Write the structure tokens for this entry.
Amino acid sequence: MRTGKVSKKARQREQLILALLQQPTMEKAAASIGISTVTAWRISKTREFREEYRNARWEAFSQALARLQQASGAAVSALLKVMIDRTAPPASRVRAADRILDHAVKATALEGIEARIAELERAANLAGKEPERA
């Protein structure tokens, strides 16, 4: 967050944001940093708090997504192992195969959507440019 000289309000706002990322309720977050629930509520109603909290939540979510992406290779390997394991129950093998196919279809559809969006953006950019005059 910030370094150096920080006002009491800014420090409380930062502490509350960190506490809310770790605690399940406003009451528990306030208690964890030693402020009243009323003070926490007042802080939470400011524009600065809402913006900083939204950014902090997005950053936390972005880090969680990155962890999921890193683990996706291992998840696919686990599904493949179950799918080809002749000693695994047939229902587990079928379920693993179904999940692999389901994810493959979704990934293919997403790639198609991304390609169409890129083409639309390219066309919009070309349409927005004035033709060169000779």
Remarks:
- Helices lie at 8-22, 26-33, 37-44, 47-84, 90-128.
